[in-house]
Design goal:
mainly alpha; Bromodomain-like; 68% helix; transmembrane; DiS_bond_form_DsbB/BdbC; DsbB-like_sf; transmembrane helix
């Protein structure tokens, strides 16, 4: 196997999570479906999953990528995926009994929280495989940290900032998100929209 493959798999992992989160934004703003607190926790868990792969990329930037650094990155992803899977499962179980239609409209036949569980299971499998083959995927030679790596890390940073802004707009100056959100509280707190 190519000894730098682990470095490029980490890029792929980050990009895929960013695409999933951008898809969640398209549903949120395109379909006008404001995410509930469990949805936001699932997004945070996905960002933490990608953080493990981003850690691998950033560690490789300074030189050779060692097996302990590689394992630490994917260990972070596994812990985040387990937490995210638990949150997704909780939301699935809240809406599993008929005639509950579920929260939000289905996408390709499944609700977003069900897709989130699929993403977390895939992250668990991917991280486990990366750890199993770490000896074949990691090189002791310096890895090039070029424009592709900078672009992937920049995209990930932008997705994190967008999610932070989304939560702030949704919660406003309140400590908690509403269980069944119907509006972006920040705009009402600032008086941009009339509360009536």
């Amino acid at each position: 196997m190519n000894k730098q493959l682990g470095f490029w798999i980490a890029h792929f992992n980050v990009v895929v999570v960013c695409i999933v989160l951008l898809g969640a934004f398209s549903v949120q703003f395109g379909e006008q479906e404001i995410p509930c607190p469990l949805c936001m926790l699932q997004r945070m868990a996905m960002m933490l999953c990608a953080m493990g792969s981003a850690y691998v990329i950033l560690q490789a930037r300074s030189g050779a990528l060692s097996i302990p650094e590689f394992a630490a990155g994917y260990g972070m992803s596994i812990l985040a995926a387990v937490c995210g899977a638990a949150i997704s499962t909780r939301q699935i179980l809240l809406h599993i009994v008929p005639p509950d239609p579920g929260y939000g409209d289905p996408v390709f036949g499944l609700h977003l929280y069900t897709w989130a569980l699929v993403v977390f299971v895939v992250v668990l499998i991917d991280s486990g495989l990366n750890l199993m083959f770490a000896g074949s995927l990691v090189t002791d030679q310096p890895v090039k940290f070029g424009s592709v790596s900078k672009g992937v890390i920049g995209l990930f940073g932008a997705v994190i900032v967008a999610n932070l802004l989304c939560v702030f707009c949704q919660a406003g100056f309140h400590w908690i998100l509403p269980d069944d959100p119907a509006r972006y509280e920040l705009f009402y707190d600032l008086g941009i929209f009339n509360a009536n």
